[in-house]
Amino acid sequence: MTSRRDHDDPIRGIAQRTTRRDLLGLTALGILAAGTKPARAAEGQLVYASHISLAPAWFDPAETSGIVTPFMLLYALHDGLVKPMPGNPAEPCLAESYTASADGLAHSFVLRAGATFHNGAPVTAEDVKFSFERYRGNAARFIKEKVAAVETPDPRRVVFRLHQPWPDFLIYYSSVTGAGWIVPKKYVESVGEDGFKKEPIGAGPYKFVSFTPGVELVMEAFEGYWRKAPTVKRLVWKVIPDETTRLAALKRGEVDLAYSIRGELAEELRRTPGLELKPVVINSPFWIYFADQWDPKSPWHDARVRKAVTLALDREGINQALTLGHSLLTGSIVPKDYEFYWRPPKIPHDPAAARRLLAEAGFRGGFDAGEYYCDSSYANLAEAALNSLEDVGIRVKLRPIERAAFNTGYAEKKYRNIIQGGSGAFGNAATRMETFVVKGGAYVYGSYPDIDDLFAQQAVETDRAKRAPILHRMQQLVHERTVYAPLWQLAFLNGQGPRVDESAFGLIGGHPYSAPYEDVRLKGGA
Amino acid sequence: MKQYILRRVGYSLLSMFLLSLVIFLFVRVTGDPVSLLVEPGASPEDIENMRRQFGLDQPLWVQYWHFMASLATGDLGQSFYYRTPVLELYFQRLPNSLLLASVAMTLSLLIGIPSGILAAVRVDGFWDSAGKIFALLGLSLPSFWVGLVLILFFSVYLGWLPSSGSGTPLHLLMPAFTLGWYFAAAHMRLTRSSMLEVLGSEYIKLARLKGLPEALVIGKHALKNALIPVITLAGINLVVMINVAVVVETVFAWPGIGRLLYEGITFRDFPIVQGVVVIGGAMIVLVNLFVDILYALIDPRIRLES
Predict the structure, then answer these.
(1) Which residues of B touch A244 (CB under 8 A)?
(2) Any alpha helices (H) in A226-302, and if so which ranges?
(3) Treating both helix axes as pointing N-terminal to C-terminal, what angle do A429-436 and A449-459 enclose, rounded to 10 degrees?
(4) A90-119 tens-digit pLDDT
(5) How many beta-carbon pairs under 8 angstroms link A with B?
(6) Which of residues 453-512 of A touch B (CB under 8 A)?
(7) Is A240 on the interface with B (CB under 8 A)?
C-alpha cells in the first residue's frame, strides 16, 4: 500500500480522520506489541474467547433468530438431521439418508441407527416431529405453512409432506432455520421450556456442564457421539468483550482461540510468534446499492455511471488495508458457497475506464453525487470506498448511521442515492434474489420486470438442473446492469494460540466459528 | 417530623416515577431492538413476529402501563437477548459488582482521604502539588486506557496478573485500581477542600490557641467534620460503582452490573437498561431519603423549618 500513489490509497481518508480514540487504540496496540509472559493452560481443555455475550436462548434450536451466532453453540450441543458440514452444505447427520419424491411433495429421512442424546435416550422419529412442531424461531410460520403433515411411520423414519412442491425445503429445514436440529421430546416435556434452557440436552458432540451468564460456558465431550468422540475433553467459552483484552488473553495463553481480532490488532497477532491468524470468509457479502437507479432524473439511472462506480472501486487495496487481504472479492451479492451461485467475471480496478464512462454519460470531471448511507459499524469500509469514488470525481457525503436505525431505514426504503449494505442471512441464491433484487423484496427499491419473471419461473421449478440456469441468468443480469456494485465477501479474523493443532475455523464453508467441534484438536492429541 | 418524612417519601416516589418515565422513553428513542436481533435481509414477517413477542407492537402508553404494572410487583421484565428475567440477571451479577465496588471504594478512600488531608495541611507545598497531579490524572485519564496500560505491564509483560475475568483475588486487582483511581481523585479533592474550610474555622483556631497538639487538632477536631461531605459522596459513589462501572467491567471482562448495562445498551435490550437504571436510581433515592431523615433527626432546625 505504501508504494501506491497517494490518490490510489484507500486508507488515506482514514488517516486524515484519525481521532483521539484512534491514538488511544494505537497505544493499546503498542501495549500488545510488548513481550509476553504466558499463563499455564489446563490439560485437555480448550478455551475460546468469545467476542459476544452468550445467551441461553442459543442452547435451544427452537429459538434461532436468523443470525448465525446461535450456531456457534448449536454445533456443540445439538445435531441436525441434515446440516452444513465440511465440503457439503447439506450432509446427512442424525439422518442416515434423505430422499425427495419425484413430485417434490414428500421428503423422507431415515434416522441413523445408534444415535443418542446425552442422556442415553435414542434419537427417534417422534423427537424429529416434536422438534419441528416446537420450532418457533426465524421463518417458523413460513416453513410450517408449507408442510402439510409430518409422518412417523416407524421410530427411524420421518416423512414431511408438503402442500405443493417447494425446491428449497431442505435448505430451510437444515440451515435457514433451526427446525431440523433435534431435541429430546421426553426430556423437554419433563423439565419444561425454562428447565431446558438451564440444563440443555442434545445429540451433539459436547454435553452441557455449566453456564454463568456473561462469564463462561463449560461443556465436556460426549463420548457416545455418532460421528466420533471429540478428542478435546472440555471446552470453555469465556466472554471477553474488548478486542484488545482478547488479544492480551491469547498472548498470555489464558485462551486458545480468540474470535474477532481486526485491523491493526490482527496485524499484531500475525506478527506474534506462536500465534496464528485464522481468517474465515463468511457468508456475508457487502455492496453498494444504487437506490435511485429507477428514477430517470437520477444520474444513477444511467448504467454507465453505475458501471463507473464498480470500475472505480479499488477492492484489492481496500481488502489489504482493512482485512489484510483475507476478504473475498467475489463481485456478487450472493455468497459464493450458496446453492445456485453464479460466478461473475472479475471486476477490474480501472479508474481511467471509469472516468471515460462518466464523460460519455455527460459527467466529465465527475459530479456531486449526494449521500452515501452505511451502517456505522462498517464506516471504515465506506470511507475506503468513498476515496475510490472521489478519485474518479464522484463526490459523495458519508452518512454513517447506527446499526439498528440503518437496518430499519434501509428496509423502510427511506434512503436515497447510494446505500452500502450487506447481509449474512441464510439461504441460497434464490432467497438472496428474493430479498434484494426481485419486486416486493424487503430491501428492494425498484426492480426489472425480466428479472422478476425469471424469479417466478424458478420458484415453481422442482428440477434442479432446470432451475440452476434460471437463477444463474438472474445473477448475470444483475451483474450486467450493475444493479449493485459488490464490494467483498467479508473475512472474519480470529486468533489461534500455540496449543491448538486444529481450530476447525473455515472447515464449514461460510461458517464464521470453529466447527464441527469434534474435529477440534490440541497438539499432542488431546 | 411525620409530615417531613411523608413529604420526603413523596418526593422520592415522584423522582422514581419521573426516572421510570424518562428511561422508558429514552431507550425507545435509541431505535428498534429487533433490527439488531435479526440479520439484514430477514423477512418482514419474522421481524414483526419478534416485535410482537417482545410487546413492541403495542402503543407506547400500553407498553409503559405494562412496565409500571410489572414494576409494582417487583418484576422488571424479561431480557430480549438473554430471555431471562432481568432481576435474575441483576442478582447474578450483583455479588461481582459489590465485590469490585467495595474493593475499589476501599482503595479510593485509603488513597483519597490521606492524600487530601496531606494536601490541605501542606497547601501549595510538594504534597499539595503531587496530590493535584494525582487527582488531575485520575479524573482525566480514560479508564479504558488506564486498564489497557495495566494489562500491558502486569499481565502481558510481567505476567503477574490475569488479563481479564474473575474468580481469584488476583483478578480483582487491576479493575479495582482502575475504578478506584478515578474516585480516589474525587475523594482527594473533596477532602482537601473540606479540610481547608474546616481548618480556617473559629473552633480550630481556638483549639490551636488552647495549645492542642497539631495532630490532635487535625485528626480529631478537623477531620471529623471535614469527612461528613466525603462520606456522603462516597455513599453515592458506591452506588455508582456498583451500577455503572461500564468501561472498567468491559475492558477487564468483569461480570458485573456495569457490563450487564453495556450489553443492554449494545443490544437495545430495553428491559435490562430500564431495570439497571431503575434499581440504580432507587438505590440513590433511598440513600438520599435516608440521609434526609438522618439530617432531620440530628438537626432540629431542619424538621422545625419543614
Answers:
(1) 148, 151, 251
(2) 243-252, 263-271
(3) 140
(4) 899 999 999 999 888 999 999 999 999 999
(5) 178
(6) none
(7) yes
Whole-Å CA distances, B269 to A55, A159, B28, B272: 12, 40, 10, 6
CA distance A321 to A13: 12
DSSP letters for A396-456: EEEEEE-HHHHHHHHHTT---SEEEEE----S-HHHHHHHHTSTT-TT-S---HHHHHHHH
**Which residues on adjacent β-strands are paired with residue A328?**
A489
- Contacting residues for B250 by C-beta, under 8 A, at least 6 apart: A241, A242, B144, B258, B259, B262
Residue A48 and residue A55: Cα distance in Å, rounded?
16
In Å, how far is A342's CA from the nearest CA of chain B?
20
When CB atoms are compared, the residue of A65, A252, A443 closest to B156 is A252
Q: Please check whether residue A25 touches B, CB under 8 A.
A: no
Torsion, Cα of A194, A195, A200, A203 (10° steps): -100
State the ipTM, two decimals. 0.76
Measured distance between the N- and C-terminal CA atoms of chain A, rounded to whole angstroms: 42
Contact between chains at B250 and A242 (C-beta distance less than 8 A): yes
The contacts of residue A416 (CB under 8 Å, 6+ apart) are A291, A292, A370, A371
| pLDDT digits 0-9 by tens, B104-141 | 999 999 998 888 888 888 888 888 888 888 888 888 88
Selection from A521, A37, A27 nearest residue A274 by Cα: A37
Is A40 an interface residue toward B (CB < 8 Å)? no
CB contact residues (below 8 A), chain A span 402-431, against chain B: 402-405, 407-408, 410-411, 421-426
What is the DSSP code (8-state) at residue A62?
A: G
- How close B93 gets to chain A, by Cα (Å)? 9
The residue type of A426 is: F
C-alpha cell at B293: 431523615
**Three cell numbers, residue B242:** 456498583
Question: Considering only CB atoms, which chain A residues are within 8 Å of B155?
Answer: 248, 252
Check the CA dihedral A120-A122-A127-A128 and report its sign. positive
Closest Cβ opposite residue A425 in set B41, B162, B251: B41
